[in-house]
Amino acid sequence: MSGHSHFKTVAATKNANDAKKGKIFSKMGRVITIAVKEKGPDAASNIQLKAAIEKAKEFNMPKENIERAIKKGTGELAGESLEEVSFEGFGPGGFSIIMEGITDNKNRTLGDVKSILSQHEGKIAGEGAVKWMFDRKGAIMVPENQGAKETLELLAIEAGAEDVRWQENMLAIYTKPEDLEKIKKALEEKQLKIQSASLDWVAKEEIEISGKDKEKAEKLFEALDENDAIQDIYSNLKFSL
Hints:
The chain is globular. It contains 8 helices and 9 strands. The protein folds into 2 domains: 1-134 and 203-241, Alpha-Beta Plaits (2-Layer Sandwich), CATH 3.30.70; 135-202, Alpha-Beta Plaits, CATH 3.30.70. The strands form 2 sheets. The chain has a 5-stranded antiparallel beta sheet with strand order 1-9-3-2-4. Strands 6-7-5-8 form a 4-stranded antiparallel beta sheet. The longest helix has 22 residues, at 18-39. By secondary structure, the protein is an alpha+beta fold. Helix 2 (18-39) packs parallel to helix 4 (63-74). Residues 5-76 form the TACO1/YebC-like N-terminal domain.
């Protein structure tokens, strides 16, 4: 991605301690609950729910936790009154940032985000101040070790991808939002392993910042990622964290 996503962050911490795993499971549970509330508990017809469950299983989230999150979404179990939130802001060096999450208290989460940004030389921005710099796209991440780079790129384009970009050892495949699931299935039918598939905010143009600001940005992302409510973080930074 042009940004930084929570699930991609925790991918590097599969051996995390129990406290970290508990935080990851809590975040994943909220994603599942919201997906069920919005489009029902049938993963066969609810693409968001199917993706959330697949991701939860990748991190060995216990089956009972997944089932509990689904029941909270259907109302079979009492749960928090959750809502999706989206905040926009600027990081150190002036780069743009979109922060999306799920919370039971929007005002508290907004206060937390403002505080985190200010502690790391960033600031909150008004609605629409940043999002115009991004496009909403489907994003499929395919690990490199499945064939020649040119072959993987060709398979993605043949499947209908709008754009492909290499990010270290991953091929990022961008699609129209409505084509995400169709292209994911087409790639899976070609026996390709999919690391992740999601709807992301992709920067129209990326910017460079100084080395010092990059270090500050990394600390900012880590602090946001530690917040219980923040699920996904996107930026227009050129470098990949």
